[in-house]
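Subject: Interface between my chains keeps coming out wrong

I've been trying for a while to get a sensible model of this assembly. When I model each chain on its own everything looks fine, but I need the whole thing in one frame so I can look at the contacts. Pasting all components below, labels as-is. Any help appreciated, I'm running out of ideas.
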Amino acid sequence: MTKRKSIRTDISWSTTDKITVKGLDLCEDILGKVSLGDMAFLELTDRLPTPQESTVFNAIAVSLVEHGMTPSAIVTRMTIAGAPEAMQAAVGAGLCGLGSVFVGSMEDAARLLQDALPLTRPEAKIAVDIAALARQIVDTQMALGKSVPGIGHHIHKPIDPRTPKLFEIAQANGFSGQYVALMSAVAAEAGRRLGKNLPVNATGAIAAVASELGLPWHIVRGVGVMARAIGLVAHVLEELRNPMAREIKAMVEEQATAHLR
Amino acid sequence: MTKRKSIRTDISWSTTDKITVKGLDLCEDILGKVSLGDMAFLELTDRLPTPQESTVFNAIAVSLVEHGMTPSAIVTRMTIAGAPEAMQAAVGAGLCGLGSVFVGSMEDAARLLQDALPLTRPEAKIAVDIAALARQIVDTQMALGKSVPGIGHHIHKPIDPRTPKLFEIAQANGFSGQYVALMSAVAAEAGRRLGKNLPVNATGAIAAVASELGLPWHIVRGVGVMARAIGLVAHVLEELRNPMAREIKAMVEEQATAHLR
Amino acid sequence: MTKRKSIRTDISWSTTDKITVKGLDLCEDILGKVSLGDMAFLELTDRLPTPQESTVFNAIAVSLVEHGMTPSAIVTRMTIAGAPEAMQAAVGAGLCGLGSVFVGSMEDAARLLQDALPLTRPEAKIAVDIAALARQIVDTQMALGKSVPGIGHHIHKPIDPRTPKLFEIAQANGFSGQYVALMSAVAAEAGRRLGKNLPVNATGAIAAVASELGLPWHIVRGVGVMARAIGLVAHVLEELRNPMAREIKAMVEEQATAHLR
Amino acid sequence: MTKRKSIRTDISWSTTDKITVKGLDLCEDILGKVSLGDMAFLELTDRLPTPQESTVFNAIAVSLVEHGMTPSAIVTRMTIAGAPEAMQAAVGAGLCGLGSVFVGSMEDAARLLQDALPLTRPEAKIAVDIAALARQIVDTQMALGKSVPGIGHHIHKPIDPRTPKLFEIAQANGFSGQYVALMSAVAAEAGRRLGKNLPVNATGAIAAVASELGLPWHIVRGVGVMARAIGLVAHVLEELRNPMAREIKAMVEEQATAHLR
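Reply #2:
Try treating it as a single job with all components included. I did that and got this:
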């Protein structure tokens, strides 16, 4: 047998009488004491949140659960209609579209913020020139011909109602620091350059607040994925009770082939 | 254009200044006030839980988040190894295996319980002969040549530690009623028949407690799917930090083709 | 280390200078000599097809590649729109809906045929009473309150044009035997009972011809899955060139929430 | 109702008596005449292949069907073990990992070749300095700190046996032109720089030959996806007959948690 690198997991393991998850005893330390949102925080960060972190993290995650008839929800509904015996695959299929376009702006915004202000910077309290960083971010995006992620919204005008609420929750719990300031400054700077009102949207607010919580940018998409899985189960249940998949199929087929008739 | 049946969703919708989810104002009623687990309860049942329901539901959901190196976790890890740019698809692929075998016993147990004691029975408090129902369930399964779901465990002996804990949490919150009694009676009856110790395992306990909460059996799998999505994100993160997919592949290939060499 | 059952695959293995697939040398025996459809036959049945089998099997598989704007195609398009960097996941998501509803009637029809006339029956040429078997199948389905799979079509009237073509190809290649006769007899019998014209549709024709080829019913869905994967790639390409996902999303959202506005 | 952009598909549409796919009559022009591989070519390129194109395209596609116990095959097997009622989801899950790592080198190689020699260049026969282009490609990759895709192999030494075979098939059918020459020159140049033998591997050969066929680089992954779907169905069938998923799970769990015991 070939010599091989050993493999290891530190997430969870079991003995005959005990299940350990992230170093905690599932039955003694977690069940009945830790909520689902805090369990998610534990899974992502290897420790339980403080009450303040819990409130802020849960708010972010909850805001990502349900966005109505999204492409993902449509995918889940079309899939359960064909395979009602496989709810898990309908949710799995729905998650597959949470890529660079629909959750990407959240991830991109978090990345820009964390590139400008690294999570591991030695002294987070040190004075940084937020306005200068914001100009630099907007400059770079424009030079690359890219839009600035996390600002503006095609429906919610003048402002995405989730943004002031998430920022208020962050503030009330001590998580309104340099990332929130920077995200707001970026939005203001981009609006000034383009001569229009481009306030921080929900994806920008989540990116900023997640950064305040210390979540690395590449984990931010993971929060969206786990939250949306919850919402997609609700779409499965509604589709099973009151189906729309066949109508959607008929509507799409009729319109997409109209030029052929 | 063909006349068509209208389609409708009642889950969520947006106006320029408001987002409504299950009849509640997302920003005013939910964000900062409702935890992720309670949001899941809302998505599944169309109302927020009482504090007691919240504790019990969160305990069930949390118990399903993380089971270590399950087939689903291996699937997610093998997938992220091939497509690290698509975390959402790695989680989606991992969910696809949560079918009749791995989460089925939970669903089957809930179904047996709810077939015997319908959720909508007019008088839940009426005296029922739990022992007789249990005998009937075991008889039927045996006559069909099927095993009794929700009992016994190949690792956790003499008892799955999650069972007494979940039953204790249910009891402390007023959710230890006829379903918990029936599940326990079924385990006792099956053990007697087969002459071995077959206590209620975690899937049986979850089935019973979910039934106490009034969750229809076909929703129970949905709780497992949403919870496991959280756990699979953790496996994505560990795999990215400390990969094992290539070793697993090499190990499997070597052993599975050994007879050819 | 625990003693374990050994694992083995016989599909394919490699040495430094040779790749073996199903017992054949990939480079010497397959590449340049075996077409994709015949390779699929080899993968499913462990041997290469005769020229007649090849023609018939390829016709079946080809008939399953492309059905236009199916729910699966819509799923793939909604998914690639959100994650254009993950074409493989868009196709994977599209496949997830090929379950009991959309490909099930093909599988169900094949199963009914093979339950009535087992593939492994010692003497396939023996006289069987096709009409009696057909009556029995229709009786059983009606007694179970189930529809008869493989007959009738909501668009193609009076007849699904694929049926006579597939039967003609089967006939020309020596594969029009008892299964084709039985499927036709079932359609006639069901039509007589229900007093309407219910000719064999494409799923029934494929079920019958696949049975003639000796493909077990549980493999028939696999032919659909592999064929549809080809078609879904075409939908990915068209969606990337001429997208419709955002329009579908807008259309569905508008109609499904109209009652709320 | 909001005014909206119209949507359209040109892939396929149906009337009561006819099914059209890519402009051809499915029953008259395709069934019984076009093989599955040629159907795939039609789906990708909007026309049927010549006999030479057919041979070369089928060889490429066939070479991608089966690679043994790949991560994708393991994913499909772990998934069918949990959800044997959903073969389509097991194949779908298996496809999800065909991303930048496992099929990426093929796509990357095709992209490098087509960036250097655009498919739409006015005069393909014009003299180009292949050696200079090869140096430029290797220079660029090295300057970016990236490996050169499509060369070398960890198992097949001294040479991947598929490469000479695919190049021979291309040559015999008139598809051994500048792309094959460039790929070979790139391999030679990279080997010279790094002082080792780095012949063109199967992914490089496929990239070159697919480019000779005029397939844009972003379609090359699609060929891999459709071909692998065929192979994954074979793994479903073998797993159902002779399962290994539980053993893999036990093996992985034991080794990955050994440090905890």
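Reply #3:
Confirming on my end. Residues 217-241 of chain A form the longest helix (25 residues).
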